[in-house]
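Researcher: Good morning. I'm working through a list of sequences from a screen, and I'd like to move beyond sequence-only analysis. For each chain I'm collecting a predicted structure so we can compare shapes side by side. This is the next one on the list. No need for commentary yet; just the structure.
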Amino acid sequence: MFQAFQLVPHLTVVENVELPLAYRGLFPADRRRRAVQALERVGLVERLTHLPDELSGGEQQRTAIARAIAAEPDLLLADEPTGNLDDAATQAVLGLFREIHAAGATVVVVTHNPRVAATAAQRYEMCEGSLRPGRPPQLAPGAGP
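Model: Good morning. Structure tokens for this chain:
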């Protein structure tokens, strides 16, 4: 999942989510079903026929998330997946990632947000080109993502 969304401007929201499924050889009805289900999971089912430029930044980000989860991947790589989301949408996306992880997938989230990092079971830090186990973030009491 790209930080910059990489949505195709002339495709609708549902078509953007379906596109990678077409490359996987899924039948059109299966692609549409998976795309709609993924968009429901991110709260965008009412925006199926909108074009990317008709969406807010947060809606574009959730469309990119829907595109990634529609494929039901074993590994989900998410680069700043909550960067354009409000607190409620961030909580919803992190909850969705927990569900995906509980179902057996590996979810890797790259973030600069210590509140988002605090929700991870395992944390790593990139420091001077090296990856090392991360320290638990120090958050103020009651602070959440």
